[in-house]
Design a protein that fits this description.
It contains 15 helices and four strands. By secondary structure, it is mostly helical.
Amino acid sequence: MTYAFLQQYWWFLISLLGALLVFLMFVQGANAQLFLKGMTPAKRSLIVNSTGRKWELTFTTLVTFGGAFFASFPLFYSTSFGGAYWVWILLLVTFVFQAVSYEFQNKNGNLLGSKAFCMFLTINGVLAPFLVGTAVGTFFTGSNFVVNKLAIADNVAPVISSWGNSWHGLDALATPAIWLGMVVMLLDIVLGCMYAINNIDNDELIRKLRGRIVVMGFFFVLFFVTWVFILCKMNGYAVDINGTISLESGKYLHNLLQMPAVAAMFLVGTLLVLAGIYWGGFTKSRKAIWPAGIGTVLVVLALFFIAGYNGTAYYPSSSDLQSSLTIANSSSSEFTLKTMFWVSLLIPFVLAYIVYAWRQMDKTPITEKEINETENKY
């Protein structure tokens, strides 16, 4: 195992975690439907109890994604989490709202009422996917930071990375990165509706959610096509064999064309998502979440690959090209990556347990009768 192989391997794992996170945020997407027209408290309770069985998987994946980035590419962690901190703070705050809402909305002595906590879940359902998508969008549009590794020797202020403005990440809202934020938000809303259809036994609610898939699926396709067009026309950040970074017109399109396997993954994933939207919105199928979920993972994997592989700076600096972060210049030491490699071999066993637990929780669809008769509910 060479150092270069380990760096590439850990970028693959980061990409996989990011792709799984976007898929698992169907929890947020479903919660964004809590105040649809005609949504009764009973129907709200069905959705909340459906997503309540999965929200910890989403949050754990988010924490694992951040932890893996810290361990394998610490310079990105210190630059983004230490510089663009408003984005990450807002994201964590919305997840705190989510956790509190699940645990306390039906507790005795709840002064706010369950409807207020449902509103918190809705805010998390809209804002969290948007923030995650926008943050990933900066992998392509760039961020305003400067890296000076020599500063580590400064006894007064040993700060390697510094942000170039006082917005600290919110400046991404004025860049094309927000298009990817909208894409992820709309996609997770569609996935959330599909998951609820698969997991809930209530004909009236299912009809509402199918209509929602059609409407939000249309807007998803519109924003997704726009984002792909922007991405293919965008200047990218190319890295030569000496580590020098330069702008290259159409770099991300070139990456797709020069990595046929990634292009095929992107195409197949896109077709699976579109098939899921059709089956979920226009047929009586309740299994649309699975092709759409697999397609989501494939598309997000492809986006991460074209952002970091094929001689590309995955976290470009818009203020200083040579400060841009690459897989090679931002990773941990060879010893650290090698040690973590052996630990990472346990991941398939963890995934197998998640699949088993998922199947046990979802053996039968949730019904109003079950919610009314059980005390173990959200």
